[in-house]
Amino acid sequence: MINAIEFNNVSYTYPRPAGEGGPARLALDRITLAVPEGQRVGVLGPNGGGKSTLLKLTLGMLPGHTGEIRVMGLPPREAAQRRLIGYVPQRSTAELKFPFTVRQVVEMGATLGLPAWKSLSREQRGNIDRALTLVGASEIAGSHIGSLSGGQLQRVLIARALACAPKVLLLDEPTVGIDAVGQQQFADLLRHLHDDLKLTVMVVSHDIRTVAAGCDRVACLSRTLHFHAAPQGLTPAVLAEVFRHDVAAIFGDIHVDAHAASACSDPSHHHGAVAPTPVSIRVEKTPR
Amino acid sequence: MNTLRYFMDPNLAAGYWPVVVTGLAVAMLCALLSVLVVLKRLAFIGQGISHAGFGGMGLAAVMGLVTAAAAGSASASVGQFLVVLGFCLLSALLIGFLSERGQAEADTAIGIVLVGTMAAGIVLMRTARSRASVESFLFGDILAVTWTDAAIGWTVAVGVLLALWLTRRALLFWSFDPVVARALGVSDRRMNLLLMFLLGLATVTAMRLAGAVLATAMLVLPGAIALRLSRRWLPVLWLAAASAVVGILGGLLVSFELNWPPGAAIVSVLCVLFGVACVPNLTRRVPA
Question: Per the domain annotation, does A4 fall within a domain?
């Protein structure tokens, strides 16, 4: 099995903004990461911990890093341009006043890069229908994109990312602003993506519930990267270290019923699939 | 009726047909772009570019092109068009440069370039001692429109529509969701330049009819009217085209009949259409 995403000793420092004082900011420090094809990895960490930088590097959007990055064996920019990567940002990035239907938005994922005179092939139309069905958006395909709820919009943007049949799916804070039901549906969707499409998925989030419920492995990122079993290894002590705060004070009682797969404490270990077992994590609120 | 007299009399009709033909080219040219201008909130930058056109007119006057074009020289007309277009595009680049380099916020940069180029236009016109009136450049002049302008107008219209068709997939994706478009390899800089170039072309062409001050209205009102009436992409494009044609032909009719400057007459008709388009939304009950 080859690695879909590989980071080899990668560091990235944001350059000092022109005309401003202060030192350049080290965002990622010697990151080594290997995500085998078909695995779902959650990257958990506090705001400013380097999660978005990790995604941007995976998409090839930040030049000037040290170390080597490969996505499906290619430099990230090339992989993105060949449409091997699907990317779903936080929902606020789309202009929802555009007079587009859900289907038109999903089609954009397949038509970007097609020559102007070429229309969609039967196979590409099939991909679009399949993506809509997979995310449960077939019935709202004719609705205006601005009329959707947060959870529906999130699923439509995932369908757009799937419409070009990518090998790797990157999700940035996918459950921000989505209620508990929507979060559960999102976890189910991740499972479907894994089971039906064998997609490699990387989810970046600061929400423990999101990554614990839908991922095989969890990487805790706070400038440096540490792997932990998901969700068994996410003890209050580990989380407090990552978030630099008493996690119970942030999240309160957390109870996630999840199907955890492989438990990995190091990127070089345990990449084989482990039969899913229902588990839960519970972070008790500390008495004050 | 003046209009009938103008078009029934062969001597007068020769002077007025170019106005109508140019008007239709401007309508086609601006209608589709105006939808993007409204959705991308580019109205103010359009205003900046069109005012820069006045500075370009001043430069063309100093070069002797304005006087030669008014005397009927087709090559001088084309030269004048190119000088004004170049001036507009340089102004758009200057706005981009000032805001990108952090020298000024985007709206401040537009404001500075807008007044700076207007001032330059007035000084250059005085220097050139052109016989053409400043008012005709500011508010449009029917008698100044020739068959050369009509030919330039249709050439530009066909060119812009072709460019929009060829780039529609990347341009629409980038306009709708710039963050994901960038992640998938669509260049922000290229898309911005393309849009500025097309806006510059449309503005300079519309200026001949509506003048520097009111040309932007053509790039805002048809799109604003259409988006009030529909939330579907294709109907919006058709409605924008229809309202641009009605606005321009209706405005010319008013201009012929009441002897108003054509720019003011066209903008007045488009504003009335916008008011009518707002009525259904104003009368809709706000849910409790």
Answer: yes
Between chains, do B102 and A18 touch, taking CB under 8 Å as contact? Answer: yes
Pair A54, A184 in one domain: yes
φ, ψ at B116 (rounded to 5°): -60, -45
Per the document, the length of chain B is 288
User: Are B170 and A112 inside 8 Å of each other by CB?
Assistant: yes
In a domain, A18, yes or no: no
- Which among B41, B62, B65, B88 has a CA at the least distance from the CA of B206? B88
Give the three-class secondary structure for A283: strand
Can you list the domains of chain B with their CATH numbers? Answer: 2-278 (1.10.3470.10)
Whether A107 and A250 map to the same domain: the answer is: no
> Would the CB atoms of A101 and B176 count as touching at under 8 Å?
no
A112 interaction partners in chain B (CB closer than 8 Å): 169-170, 173, 181, 184, 186
Report A:8-67 residues touching B (Cβ under 8 A). 17-19, 56, 59, 61
Sole residue written with tokens 């209009």:
B3
β partners of residue A8: A68
- The C-alpha atoms of residue A176 and residue A150 are separated, in whole angstroms, by 9
Residues in B closer than 8 angstroms to A104, CB to CB, are 233
The reply to whether A51 falls in a domain is: yes
What's the CA gap between A19 and A15, in Å, rounded? 12
Which of A103, A130, A165 is the endpoint of a domain?
A: A165
B positions 135-194 inside 8 Å of A (CB): 165-170, 172-173, 175-186
pLDDT in tens, A224-258: 777 665 566 666 666 666 665 555 554 444 444 44
Do B17 and B79 meet the contact criterion of CB atoms below 8 Å apart?
no
For residue B181, give the chain A residue with the closest CA.
A112
Q: Chain B residues with CB inside 8 Å of A174's CB?
A: none
Contact A98 B176 (CB under 8 A): yes
pLDDT tens-digit readout, A168-216: 999 988 877 777 777 777 878 888 887 888 899 999 887 777 777 777 7
Q: Are residues A175 and A263 in the same domain?
A: yes
Q: Is residue A89 part of a domain?
A: no
| Distant-in-sequence, close-in-space partners of B227: CB < 8 Å, separation ≥ 6 | A97, A99, B35, B38, B39, B236
Residues 6+ apart with CB under 8 A from B177: A89, A93, A94, A95
Q: What ipTM, to 2 d.p.?
A: 0.83
| Torsion angles phi and psi, residue B281, rounded to 5 | -70, -35
**Got the DSSP string for A82-128?**
TT-EEEE--GGGS-TTS--BHHHHHHHHHHTTS-TTPPPPHHHHHHH
